[in-house]
Design a protein that fits this description.
The chain has 330 residues and is mainly α. The chain contains 12 helices and no strands. The chain has helices spanning 19-42, 57-73, 79-87, 90-101, 107-125, 138-165, 172-194, 196-206, 209-235, 237-259, 265-291, 307-312. Helix 3 packs antiparallel against helix 5.
């Protein structure tokens, strides 16, 4: 979205004119991949679905909105602002879980989420810089706020679907198909109503290499979705959000190794904070499992988490997710 290509009449600055088309291309390929996977595994694309397609519509809308607003924000915000917002998704996801599912998280988990947010932001800010940084505009901040809210809703709604219809009745391929089948309807309608498809067609004629980048993005997006839906199903939305938040640290470290960049002392401090909190969460979960018979918490109705969910949350990655109400039906 920030790269400059040959200018066109509708895009005189040479930048790709439509965030909606980026979302559409990602969803288009994802639907094809999901249909093939569901057909192979279940013998029918829609015949064995326990959850109706309409059940996926809310998170399809929020997922589409999240992707669109993230792409759209890139033109209007500076790198530091992007970093802070991308690092701060954990607490909004927790709050959304409380709203949608009544999940109760202990205060210590909010504090841990805050420390991870600060640590990732510090590490990212002091590890790299952008030579083509944009000025931050109010429009960009609004896009980022919309991105955070929509993204938080998406993962929690998907977790709610697993609870309502049973994890054994919805696999990651069916979730991928349901979400993207609804999402592609909205993205197509958006392209037609806004007239962006004409701008994109004109831009692709002038810059045919852009289609190559679009295809690569769509492939990586579809591949990533399979991992995303599996993680949310098995470990819950908080663990998924922590993984997505901390992964940018690993990307920066890998980039530093490959391109021989120097990571500053302040960035190292941020990394120590993040991994210190993660290891503390693992230890806290281990101690709770070994010495406390009573579950860590219950939902508003007083029911304890199902045993299989508690067992599933013991893995290293899942140890940061509060087990409260993750296995219950809403």
């Amino acid at each position: 979205m920030k790269s400059e290509f040959n200018p066109t009449v509708s895009s005189p600055d040479g930048k790709f004119p439509s965030a909606a088309f980026c979302v559409f291309s990602n969803r288009f390929l994802a639907v094809i991949v999901a249909m093939i996977a569901v057909k192979i595994k279940h013998g029918s694309v829609f015949g064995n679905n326990k959850a109706p397609l309409l059940a996926f519509t809310p998170c399809a809308i929020s997922n589409t909105t999240s992707s669109w607003s993230q792409y759209a924000s890139l033109k209007y915000v500076s790198f530091p602002v992007q970093t802070v917002f991308k690092s701060s998704k954990i607490i909004p996801v927790m709050l959304m879980g409380k709203v949608l599912k009544g999940t109760i998280y202990p205060y210590v988990q909010y504090f841990e989420a805050f420390l991870i947010t600060v640590g990732v932001a510090v590490f990212s800010l002091f590890s790299k810089s952008s030579s083509t940084d944009a000025e931050t505009e109010l429009k960009g901040l609004l896009f980022l706020i919309l991105y955070i809210c929509s993204d938080s809703f998406t993962s929690q709604w998907q977790s709610r679907l697993y609870q309502n219809y049973g994890k054994e009745n919805i696999d990651p391929y069916q979730m991928m198909l349901g979400v993207n089948a609804s999402a592609i309807v909205f993205t197509t309608a958006g392209l037609l109503v806004s007239g962006d498809y004409l701008k994109v067609y004109e831009f692709l004629l002038a810059n045919p290499t852009v289609l190559y980048y679009n295809i690569i993005t769509a492939i990586t997006s579809a591949s990533g979705q399979l991992c995303i839906f599996y993680t949310i199903k098995e470990f819950g939305p908080i663990v998924f959000t922590i993984i997505m938040t901390t992964r940018q640290m690993f990307s920066i470290v890998l980039s530093s190794i490959i391109f021989k960049h120097v990571i500053s002392f302040k960035a190292i401090i941020g990394a120590v904070v993040v991994f210190g909190v993660l290891f503390w969460q693992i230890r806290r979960k281990y101690m709770a499992k070994g010495h406390v018979i009573k579950p860590e918490g219950t939902d508003n109705s007083g029911s304890a988490e199902k045993k299989d969910e508690e067992e599933g949350s013991v893995s290293t990655t899942a140890s940061s997710e509060s087990p409260i109400k993750e296995g219950e039906r809403s």
